[in-house]
């Protein structure tokens, strides 16, 4: 993730360019999570934990994660992992949260 996100595509330092760069990095994180983490490997995480192969296994895995998202320990582990992944991508998490709050208005 860090390598893929290390090159900025921003042509200037404007807020719009920063937003585009942050969105690109977030897309990279999502693609890596799905293709390399959940579906990658032999067997994939989804398959290894009994959810099946390919996209169907991934969907079943995500459904199971959603069922347990209220569990404080799961929330802590997933949140900490995602924070580290976003930081390795060079994403300013506080800036991302501020942007999301502005978009909700």
Residue share in helix: over 70%
Number of strands: 0
End-to-end distance: 31 Å
The number of helical runs is 6
Rg to the nearest angstrom? 16 Å
Question: Main beta sheet, described?
Answer: none
Q: How large a portion of the residues is in β-strands, by DSSP E?
A: under 5%
Oligomeric form of this entry?
single chain
User: Which residues sit in consecutive blocks of at least 5 with pLDDT less than 50?
Assistant: none
Q: Tell me the overall shape.
A: globular
Mean pLDDT across all residues, rounded?
85
Structural class: mainly alpha
H and E string: HHHHHH
Structure in words:
By secondary structure, this protein is an all-alpha fold. The protein is 71% helix and 0% strand. The two termini are 31 Å apart.
Compact overview of the structure:
The chain is mainly α and 105 residues long.
Keywords:
mainly alpha; 71% helix; 105 residues
Could you give the topology of this structure?
Elements: H1 2-5, H2 15-38, H3 45-48, H4 54-67, H5 72-88, H6 93-104
